[in-house]
What we know:
This protein has one helix at 2-24, and strands spanning 28-37, 44-50, 55-59, 62-66, 79-84, 87-92, 101-106. By secondary structure, it is α+β, with helices and mostly antiparallel strands. It has one domain (27-106). It has a 4-stranded antiparallel β-sheet, with no helix packed on it.
Amino acid sequence: MKKALLGIIVILVLGTISIYLLIDNIKYERTRDKKLTSPSGKNQIILRYDNLSRPYIFKGNTLIYKYEGSGFNEEVEWQINWITENEINLYYDSENDQFDESYKIIIP
Length: 108
């Protein structure tokens, strides 16, 4: 009886961990990737989207910015302006200016 109970607990724990890893592992739309280089060429970042057009900024393979909003029903394009070599402005300019968003991001 104890072995069966222990087996069930192990299965539940492993199942919970597996579900967490699946949920946390966001699938990106890599076909929309944009590689951007700073004005002097010192920094290079990648703007990547998930299936809800939420932007993610990577430096190499390291995630440096994750959009916390709920996402979009349609495919949207975010823009990036370099402020300095280590700072960018990530922004979305909606057609009617009702849903405009802008974020300053420091690149490590």
